[in-house]
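Run log // design_07
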């Protein structure tokens, strides 16, 4: 699998050769994140913090809010590690400071030990000091307390001159159940596929920035042998909305996948027409492609999309299967009411009267707080959810953003005490 990487220096995405020589300015890290996040988690490294000469923490916190990120660079103690996890980092990458004691104090599945090697020996302090410790020895020492390893061949980093698969295979065996991500010199789909075959993911930066490797091709590299379709290989593709609900089943080819990733649209293969088709090009029911995932056997795809218009189905329905009512259906209704001027709509009235909406929110919250029976709790919760969604739409937010915020909070490791705030008008 592919893990795109963004190294940050002084607020810019950069690429270095062998960790020292500046090669190129990759532009705005937020723009790069928007480009790369369709492939899944993105590795983000604060090189200023790693080298002890500054910090890009505010920028990277914003990146973490926008997409799943593996954050590394300058994480040297438990407080810093927990702070990044509390900020919503999907995982943290700890380098020089990684020790069994530190890593054991953190959620194992969210810790990646960055093991940098120069010709088989571990190097630390921003790749400047050779420890003389064999890399396999360090991996074995940390494997019981981390969920993964970032294995970087420093001598090949940014050089785009090939990869030592034997070294990676040895590291994979030493890592055991901890998933290994390899970095340094990866430039082709063949290398990504071979790494996946031996049990490692591929972290890629330079090849993506220079265009030597396209993101779509990198995503497709790990796919298993496709289903043959008159000489053109296709893969079944389940299309889901932002909430993970299946909208329909379609087919993808290497060509359609590459175009979908590049254009961030729903682009598929029509087996009946034997041609590419872009969802919504004629109907107007377009899709924004948010993410592409491969299944565990690498023989099927999942497209997560933001569906616009009447829906995914060619019958102008939300999905090709029967769909039950969900909160986002209510959200869409409220958005529609916001655009109307129906004087009889109580939703429109609430949207146009902030004082009334605030009073109703307080009223429904108070009634829910007093609920004593299951029926009362359900009724009052429904009332409060409706009022809350009206306030959310009025404020310009969305349920998708609320869900992302809750996911970040759920991922936090520091628990704050639950205490009531003093009333605003208290003396």
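design_07 sequence
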């Amino acid at each position: 699998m592919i893990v795109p990487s963004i190294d940050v220096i002084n607020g810019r995405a950069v690429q270095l050769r062998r960790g020292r020589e500046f090669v190129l300015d990759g532009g705005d890290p937020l723009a790069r994140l928007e480009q790369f996040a369709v492939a899944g988690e993105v590795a983000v490294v604060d090189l200023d913090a790693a080298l002890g000469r500054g910090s890009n923490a505010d920028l990277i916190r914003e990146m973490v809010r926008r997409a799943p990120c593996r954050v590394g660079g300058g994480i040297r103690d438990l407080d810093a590690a927990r702070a990044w996890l509390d900020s919503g980092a999907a995982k943290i990458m700890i380098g020089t400071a990684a020790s069994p004691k530190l890593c054991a104090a953190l959620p194992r599945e969210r810790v990646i030990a960055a093991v940098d090697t120069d010709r088989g020996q571990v190097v630390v302090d921003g790749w400047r000091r050779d420890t003389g410790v064999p890399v396999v020895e360090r991996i074995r020492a940390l494997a019981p307390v981390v969920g993964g390893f970032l294995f970087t061949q420093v001598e090949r980093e940014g050089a785009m001159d090939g990869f030592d698969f034997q070294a990676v295979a040895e590291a994979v065996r030493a890592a055991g159940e901890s998933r290994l991500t390899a970095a340094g010199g990866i430039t082709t789909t063949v290398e990504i596929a071979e790494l996946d075959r031996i049990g490692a993911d591929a972290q890629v930066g330079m090849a993506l920035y220079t265009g030597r490797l396209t993101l779509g091709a990198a995503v497709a590299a790990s796919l298993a042998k496709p289903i043959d379709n008159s000489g053109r290989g296709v893969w079944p593709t389940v299309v889901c909305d932002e909430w993970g609900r299946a909208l329909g089943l379609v087919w993808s080819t290497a060509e359609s996948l590459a175009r979908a990733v590049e254009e961030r649209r729903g682009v598929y293969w029509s087996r009946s027409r034997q041609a590419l088709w872009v969802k919504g090009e004629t109907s107007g029911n377009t899709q924004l492609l948010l993410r592409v995932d491969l299944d565990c056997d690498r023989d099927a795809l999942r497209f997560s999309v933001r569906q616009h218009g009447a829906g995914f189905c060619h019958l102008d329905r939300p999905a090709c299967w029967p769909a039950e009512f969900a909160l986002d259906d209510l959200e869409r209704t409220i958005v529609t009411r916001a655009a109307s001027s129906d004087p009889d709509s109580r939703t429109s009235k609430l949207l146009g009267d902030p004082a009334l909406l605030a009073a109703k929110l307080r009223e429904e919250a108070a009634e829910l707080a007093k609920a004593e029976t299951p029926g009362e709790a359900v009724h009052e919760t429904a009332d409060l959810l409706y009022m809350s969604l009206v306030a959310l739409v009025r404020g310009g937010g969305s349920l998708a953003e609320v869900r992302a915020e809750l996911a970040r909070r759920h991922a936090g490791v520091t628990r704050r005490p639950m205490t009531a705030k003093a009333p605003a008008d208290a003396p």
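Residues 227-307 form a domain with the Ubiquitin-like (UB roll) fold (CATH 3.10.20.810).
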